[in-house]
Amino acid sequence: AQSVAQPEDQVNVAEGNPLTVKCTYSVSGNPYLFWYVQYPNRGLQFLLKYITGDNLVKGSYGFEAEFNKSQTSFHLKKPSALVSDSALYFCAVRPYSGSARQLTFGSGTQLTVLP
Amino acid sequence: GAGVSQSPSNKVTEKGKDVELRCDPISGHTALYWYRQRLGQGLEFLIYFQGNSAPDKSGLPSDRFSAERTGESVSTLTIQRTQQEDSAVYLCASRAPRESGANVLTFGAGSRLTVL
User: Fold this and answer.
1) Percent of chain A with pLDDT over 90
2) Nearest by CB: B91 against A41, A43, A46
C-alpha cells in the first residue's frame, strides 16, 4: 500500500530565512508527487507536481521541491520565507500509472513564518 | 463559476440527524472527488465520479454515507444518522478531462461538519 509521511506537524521559521517542509513516500512503481497548500478557511491549492524529468520542480509563490528517488523524498523548499506563507502544507503521491482516485495525502505540516 | 463551490461552509447537527453537503464543480470538469479531513489528519478519499461511469465508492466508511452526482454537474454527499466521529471537514475536488492534459485537482473550501 502506498503512504506519505510528513514527519513534522509544525515548522517555524523566521521571515527571510529558507524553509523546508519534509515529505517521504512509499508507492509501487514510479511516483507522481504533489504539494498542496491550505490557507485558513480555504480549500487546498495546488503548488507543484513532479512527474518525470528534472528532479528540482518549481511551483507557485516561489516554492520548489526536490525529488530524491534513492531517499524516496520530495521535500518542499523556499529560499526566503514570507509571513504570508504561513499555512498548512500537504504532500501527496499516487502511482504514475494510476489515477487521481489513488492519491494519498500526508497528514499535513503547519508552517508558521515569524515576522 | 471560477472555482469549486461547496455548501454549507459550516454545519452543526445533532447526533442521529441526516445531513446533505453540496458541491458545485468547475464547469467542464468531468471528474469529481469527495474527501474527508479529520482534525490533524490527512485527507481520506471517500468517493469518485467520472462522467457517466459507475462511481468508485471504495472509500465510503459505512452505509450511512452516500453520494450522487447529476451528469457532470452538482454532487451531493449525504450522511444519515450522523455520529460524533463524522465530525470533519468534507472537501470536494474536481478535475478537467484527462485529454486536456491537466491532471491536477481543484479543491473547494470544504464543509465543516460538527456533530454534537
Assistant:
1) 67
2) A43
Q: Which residues of A touch B31 (CB under 8 A)?
A: 100
A43 touches chain B (CB under 8 A): yes
In the chain, the amino acid numbered B83 is Q
Grid cell 494510476 is found at A98
Closest CA to A31 of A55, A7, A50: A50
The pair phi, psi for residue A19, each rounded to 5°, is -125, 150
| Spatial CB neighbours of A53, under 8 Å, sequence gap ≥ 6 | none
Encode pLDDT of B61-114 as tens digits: 999 999 999 888 899 999 999 999 999 999 999 988 766 666 678 889 899 999
Give the percent of chain B with pLDDT over 70: 94
Nearest-Cα distance to chain A for B80, in Å, is 24
Whole-number pLDDT of residue A1:
75
Closest alpha carbon to A36 in A112, A114, A109: A109
Chain pair A-B, CB pairs under 8 angstroms: 53
Residues of A in contact with B26 (CB under 8 A): none
Q: Check pLDDT > 80 for residue A84.
A: yes
Test mutation, A2, A101, A105, chain B, max B CBs within 10 A: A101
